[in-house]
Design goal:
single chain
Length: about 150
Amino acid sequence: MKKLANHPSNAVWLLIVLQFLLGLGALAGGAALVMASDGSILQMPLSSLEHSPFPNYLIPGVILFILLGVYPLVVAYSLWQQPAWRWPEALNPIKDKHWSWVASLSVGVILVIWITVQVLLIRSIASLHVLYFIWGWVLILLTLNKSVRGYCSH
């Protein structure tokens, strides 16, 4: 499949950059939690998990690394290059859009859910929670932007 549009809009580029930065940050954070599941690298006390189902940060670290690290990086690449990968296209419920559009939307939803669940489990809100909650909604709204929808249309 050739690229769907030759000239991505500023909204498309902003979406790609935000997906990329989210992915890089979550790779680093997830890796730090996996390497030190006691939270020591990120200076996160285990006591924050007392109301969660997790005894340490290993499982949250793996989830963070994959869902908000690797996945947004794949989405950023896919928005940029729009590869004709068959397996994600087969899972795409919106056939008139490139699968990267649906994937981008899902990253925003995953981020909003991740932060909401995190706040509920640790029973505390920090400025980073607010930042990432807003970031998730920005990803959703940018993905729904008319120029992004047009760029990702078949």
